[in-house]
Design brief:
Elements: H1 2-6, H2 9-16, H3 34-62, H4 78-87, E1 91-94, H5 107-111, E2 115-120, H6 140-156, E3 160-165, H7 196-206, H8 209-216
Parallel strand pairs: 1-2, 2-3
Helix pairs in contact: 3-4, 6-7
Length: about 220
């Protein structure tokens, strides 16, 4: 990329305020300027484009009738999000927060792609489990409240088309196999018994989905 942009190494040295003697000896500059930052940004964007374009090409070749939902960003750069929007049908994010904060998602409007939450959850320790998961509540009742508030915040945002709760069942009390996670994050516990507060909260907010969206529009 840098050879294509600058052609001669001296042109890069001047733009970067650098002193590389050969392309093969090019090292990270001690100080960054705006030109270097722009070059780094372009590299990140091109790297992300290569990834998303490759996956899209192979996915559509083998399964053209299904949507490409991106990579469920847990963390991301603006460049990666832009590349995702270029090649994916939907942009997906795992967002473990109390709710969707509109100010944090203004960039979605410019990307002109629907967005979806790939994972969120809340857990509490008042009913037999030892870990809350990534977002804690003090009780099952508060857990239910947090669920409704989160889903309502997604409904209120024009770019989001849905959110996916992780997960259906609590994890085993002694921990799941690969890493020992033992979160209270299920709609039901490990004996398949529903958490009534959460089930009722979900039923209530889900019944409002179409009316909430139609009012907003």
């Amino acid at each position: 990329m840098l050879r294509d942009k600058y052609g001669e190494l001296q042109s890069l040295n001047e733009a970067w305020n650098h002193n590389a003697g050969a392309w093969e000896d090019l090292s990270a500059p001690a100080k960054l300027n705006d030109v270097i930052r722009a070059d780094f940004s372009a590299f990140v964007k091109e790297h992300a484009r290569a990834y998303f374009s490759t996956v899209r090409r192979e996915l559509k070749a083998l399964d053209p009738d299904h949507l490409y939902l991106g990579s469920r960003f847990a963390w991301f750069t603006q460049e990666a999000a832009e590349a995702c929007a270029e090649f994916c049908d939907v942009i997906s994010f795992n967002v473990y927060q109390r709710r969707i904060a509109p100010a944090s998602w203004t960039f979605l409007e410019a990307l002109d792609r629907p967005a979806i939450i790939g994972e969120f959850h809340f857990g509490a320790l008042d009913r037999g489990m030892f870990q809350t998961g990534l977002q804690a509540a003090v009780s099952q009742q508060e857990r239910a409240q947090f669920y409704q508030e989160y889903v309502a915040s997604v409904l209120a945002h024009p770019s989001f088309v849905g959110c996916h709760w992780f997960q259906a069942f609590d994890q085993p009390l002694t921990g799941r196999t690969r890493d020992g996670e033992n979160y209270n994050i299920g709609l039901v516990d490990i004996t398949d018994t529903p958490y009534p507060e959460l089930i009722q909260a979900a039923r209530e907010i889900h019944s409002q989905v179409y009316s909430a969206r139609s009012k907003r529009e």
